[in-house]
Design brief:
115 residues; seven-stranded mixed beta sheet; four-stranded antiparallel beta sheet; 0% helix; 57% strand
Length: 115
């Protein structure tokens, strides 16, 4: 089992920045990839960014150039630096870890971009 706890969400004005963090605990060995997903009201959950254990990254087109995903040295922490935020980035952001072909999810953290 893997437990994931996100933090760092909040209210920010358009053009502002936020940094999300996710701490993984439990059986974190053999985690092959981690990522951030988001779900806006009335919409399906969508991929934001992922990073493999080897460091390869993948981003949704809507966030390329604005968001940066990274992992801590021990591999148990995940970050998402979000710059130039837009109102359409408003959503609940979820951390995900994939281990032995099973996905694990955090509880989510709310990000609201509004003036």
């Amino acid at each position: 089992q893997v437990q994931l706890v996100e933090s760092g969400g909040g209210l920010v004005q358009p053009g502002g920045s936020l940094r999300l963090s996710c701490v993984a605990s439990g059986s974190i060995f053999s985690i092959t990839s981690m990522g951030w997903y988001r779900q806006a009201p009335g919409k399906e959950r969508e991929l934001v960014a992922t990073i493999t254990s080897g460091g390869s990254t993948n981003y949704a087109d809507s966030v390329k150039g604005r968001f940066t995903i990274s992992r801590g040295n021990a591999g148990s922490t995940l970050h998402l630096q979000m710059n130039s935020l837009k109102p359409e980035d408003t959503a609940v952001y979820y951390c995900r870890a994939d281990r032995l072909y099973l996905p694990y999810w955090g509880q989510g953290t709310q990000v609201t971009v509004s003036s």
